[in-house]
Specification:
399 residues, alpha/beta, 8 strands
Amino acid sequence: MMFLLQFVFWLSLVLVLHTYLFYPLLLNWLGRDTPAHATLFARKAELPQVSVLMALHNEESVVVQKIESLLAQDYPQDKISFFLGSDCSVDQTNALIQTYANKYPQIHFFPFQNRQGKPGVINFLAREAEVLHPIGADHVFLITDANVMLAPSTVYHLVRHFKDEAIAIVDAHMIHTGMKKDGISHSENQYISTEVKLKHLEGKVWGKMIGPFGGCYTIRSDFFTQVPSNFLVDDFFITMQAFEKGGQVINDLEAVCYEAVSHDWREEFRRKSRISTGNFQNLFLFSHLWWPPIRPLAFAFFSHKVLRWITPFCIVFLAISTIFLAMGGNSFYQVILGVTLLGAILLPILDLSLTYLKINVIPIRHIRYFLLMNAALLLGFFRYIRGVKSSIWEPPKRS
């Protein structure tokens, strides 16, 4: 029995350390001398046609700034069109978009009368874009969210990589804005910044970046796959389908876009639990792409995503095995139990108490953030087990 408990303890610990420590260290080592993707369109070359696809729902607070950032792109105007689908918005979103659509013929606006969910809207917009420009290697979709603002050169920096016919998807470099000491903004920014670096290295080393930043990425139109109506994480599904077709997926750090960072614990918990549900949909649907984890794609998928998604279960197994091993009188596991209680219970309580006093200790905040986001992952798993019938969403509160 003690051997089994020790096996569970060490296996769980190694899996967590691998995904958060060993795998990033390995990628840093492998990518240290690996050049970035260099087969690029020059600015004056005959660039591909770009169709921007954007689903919106009640985005009146950001939609004007978003459209302005799209219209300001340093890209040939005859080579870019905008397809905007409002998923039954009930605020001023439709009126604001219509004003621009009346003024700019390259904006194609589709106000839905019944909720579709983001996948349904994007699927529809992709079909409309195909009517205007045929699907093919020289037609690129840019899929973006309303709250993500593009730098003027973003579209060019994304699209320039499609000179290489092996490239299926190019991801943008998302930068957070509006950091505050209170709330979770510093923890969220630390996590996303680490993810950007990790994904960039995956693209450099293997051409197998495991999932784009869903708020802004490009995909060659002939690699695009219609997303099932009940899938919650459409960008990951689309990426896995691109891998199925033999495409490569990379990130361009010069393709900059900006998003206001989240501050609210409850909003971020709700968002991450929803994403977690979608993650488990993709985990089981594409299990053949990550098991056995011996090929580059499978190893990256397993190390970067699968182990992240099952970390909550590893934490639970770690806690249970540590308790029983400590009760057996082993001083090593008693120390581990003490450290676990300090990190998992006392430090989050301390952070909560300091918050009420308007004192922010960022390293302690990171620990609380890590635990709550893993709790969101766990909740998402149980929602997945119950079944997902709809992808209809509500956008988080905008700062």
